[in-house]
Structures are given as C-alpha cells and as structure tokens.
Amino acid sequence: MTEGRKVTVSRAGRVLDASGRPVAGAVVAVVSGTAPTPEIGIRSGADGRFTVALPAGKFRLQAHARGQAGAVEVDGGGGEEIVIQIQSSP
Asked: Which InterPro entries match (predicted)?
C-alpha cells in the first residue's frame, strides 16, 4: 500500500563538459521541484555517471564542477537518462 507515501524511481544520469567528455566528481543537486525528494545532492562517479531518486513531478537539477555549471529540467518517475552539460560560468 503506497497511500500517503511518495513512490520514487531511480534515474540514471551523466555530467558532461562542453566537449561531451564525462565530468568526474561533479556535485549534482535537486534545486527545485513539484514534490519533496529524498536526495538533494550527490556526486558523479569517475565516468561522470550518477543516480538520483525522484518521485513523480517536475524537477530542476544543477551540476557544478571546477568552475563550470549547468542545469536541466526533468520529469520525475521513470524516463530516459538525464544528461547535464556543464560549461564555464560567466
């Protein structure tokens, strides 16, 4: 029974630089959304990959690493791989 509980789905993602190369150790954060999330910040692995648990809804994820940043809007629940491309901050 899930009444009163939010069901979350693990979503896979990658952080890439402007050239499309994986970014290791990027901080990925859920900065806003239409529902509470169990995770608010994680780090990408050596291959730039990360996993985040998201309930149904709409969310904005941001990634930061080595003076670079990027963001993406995603739907929670299931879906395609999340890709966040970062570039130098102004």
From this structure: CarboxyPept-like_regulatory (IPR008969)
Which pair of structure tokens corresponds to residue 84? Answer: 């966040």
Asked if residue 17 belongs to a domain, the reply is yes
Asked whether residue 43 is domain-assigned, the answer is yes
User: pLDDT tens, position by position, for the chain (90 residues)?
Assistant: 345 566 888 899 999 999 999 999 999 999 999 988 877 789 999 999 999 989 899 999 999 998 999 999 999 887 899 999 999 866
CATH number at residue 69: 2.60.40.1120
Pseudo-torsion of CA 64, 69, 71, 77, nearest 10°?
-20
